[in-house]
Design goal:
Helix 8 packs parallel to helix 10. It is globular, with a radius of gyration of 22 Å. The chain folds into 2 domains: 301 residues, Alkaline Phosphatase, subunit A (3-Layer(aba) Sandwich), CATH 3.40.720; 55 residues, no CATH class. By secondary structure, the protein is α/β, with parallel strands linked by helices. It contains 16 helices and 15 strands.
Length: 472
């Protein structure tokens, strides 16, 4: 293993390919290789992260809408089992990719990050508040006593001060003081690497492009005109999804799209610095792979006027960036064949061994088992539609999509236009070769998964975080 490389997988949560290419010039400039036709294996965090780990479609790994628990995975079920000499490290701002849902189990060391907990070793302020009935001065004294008793007193005091300051500023027409986790993920990632042996594998999830979006002090104001106190909670995603885009939505959509761009620019600056710092702290060759677990519908016509990341397999959800910094020699600067996240594990293991494996395919599949976010219509028939299972397969510039309610659509793609698709025909015959990518009939699997649904219990702090992110 003397030639083994360190490998860092950076997941920019919810970042679609076209926006990344426009608003992340620093990371693109640092990259030696771009996989231009990278596709996520699913359309939201839980199934997509499981597919990245296992190389399997959601109906095979079983982690999806109806079962969000990763704890059943063993290391041998994932590509990490093929890196026995590497320390497996992780830091994540995504609550689904956290110890709460068992995502940490296959790693040697893992840090959960939350925007309200700037120092992860210190007290969790949201949990502290929810566990106490006292208010005002009494709550402050209780906090002070508990912080002084805590193993990490300074970090706990820091969490308290920053939590209160951010809470006060949130009610004022001022920028949000703290980012949505990028600075903490960077700091925790650096310290984790410093305290670990080489070779290592590091997974880092950055959530700042995920909604709700709002102006943050570190954002570049030139990207948007949204007021400081505006957030994407100002409008209802599901009003757009069920009724389409109307004139009254245009201003809020413009604010959201521009703030999404500003968030990606902020990530570009933050992650580019993170890459340079990791480079400076490692002795071995270190390769970085930058991608996203899924993209985001922003209610453009090409998104079929859908908003968010639910109930569809649009190009805006599945076409994600994949750039490689400091790889071993072997790949072209621009690789134009399909690359699926189902092959991501093989790529990472190959890079760790100084190789550039052939991970490109002529046809690639993706799959969504059901609805992934909260707020869906409660009417049984409407809910059944939005919770339908979807499958798709890519073949050249054609995408075949079909669902568990019997619908099917053929789309035209353009390899030179990221995140673009055009509906060509409906109620089409799905080719047999496309269905052959899947082991179980779509209707059968949907019913089986729904019947076996499990719901992992979480505490009030996690429940609130999921609600903030739109998952409840």
């Amino acid at each position: 293993m003397t030639d083994a490389r360190n490998v860092v997988l950076i997941c920019l949560d919810t970042v679609r390919k076209d926006y990344f290419d426009e608003y992340a010039p620093r990371l693109r400039e640092r990259s030696s290789v771009s996989f231009e036709q990278c596709r996520a294996a699913s359309a939201w965090s839980t199934p997509s992260h499981a597919s990245m780990l296992t190389g399997e479609l959601p109906h095979r790994h079983g982690i999806h809408t109806h079962n969000r628990d990763f704890s059943g995975l063993s290391r041998s079920d994932t590509f990490l089992g093929d890196l026995p000499e590497h320390d497996a490290l992780g830091v994540s701002a995504n609550v689904y990719a956290s110890s709460t849902f068992g995502f940490d189990a296959v790693f040697d060391r893992y840090s959960d990050v939350a925007p309200h907990r700037r120092f992860p070793d210190g007290m969790d302020m949201e949990k502290f508040i929810q566990d106490r009935e006292a208010e005002g001065p009494r709550r402050f004294l209780e906090f002070l006593r508990e912080a002084l008793r805590h193993d990490h007193t300074l970090e706990s005091l820091g969490n308290g001060v920053l939590f209160k300051t951010n809470d006060l500023l949130r009610r004022a027409p001022l920028p949000k003081l703290l980012d949505d986790g990028a600075s903490i993920v960077s700091r925790e990632g650096r310290s984790t690497v410093e305290e670990s042996d080489e070779p290592f594998f590091l997974f880092a999830n950055f959530m700042d492009a995920h909604g709700p979006v709002h102006h943050v002090l570190g954002y570049d104001r030139s990207f948007h005109d949204a007021p400081n106190d505006w957030t994407s909670f100002e409008f209802d995603d599901w009003e757009i999804n069920t009724g389409g885009v109307s004139a009254e939505h245009e201003r809020d959509l413009e604010y959201h799209r521009d703030l999404y761009a500003a968030a990606i620019d902020y990530l570009d600056r933050t992650v580019a610095s993170f890459v340079e710092e990791i480079r400076s702290k490692t002795d071995r060759e270190t390769t970085f792979v930058i991608t996203a677990d899924h993209g985001e519908n922003l209610a453009y016509p090409e998104d079929e006027e859908l908003f968010g990341h639910t109930s569809s397999l649009t190009e805006s959800l599945l076409h994600v960036p994949c750039y490689v910094i400091d790889p071993p020699a072997g790949y072209d600067a621009t690789e134009r064949e399909f690359f699926s996240h189902l092959e991501l594990g093989d790529l990472l293991v190959g890079l760790a061994n100084g190789e550039t494996p052939d991970v490109f395919r002529e046809r690639v599949p993706a799959e969504l088992i059901g609805i992934g976010v909260g707020g869906a219509p409660r009417d049984p028939e409407e809910h059944r539609y939005w919770d339908r299972m979807l499958r798709c397969v890519y073949d050249g510039e054609t995408k075949h999509v079909w669902d568990s309610l019997g619908g099917s659509v053929e789309y035209e793609l353009d390899r030179d236009r990221p995140c673009w698709q055009r509906r060509v025909a409906e109620d089409v015959e799905v080719p047999a070769w496309a269905r052959d990518f899947f082991d179980v009939d779509i209707e059968e699997y949907k019913e089986r998964a729904r019947a076996a649904e499990t719901d992992r219990e979480v505490d009030a702090t996690v429940e609130r975080r999921l609600e903030e992110l739109g998952y409840r």
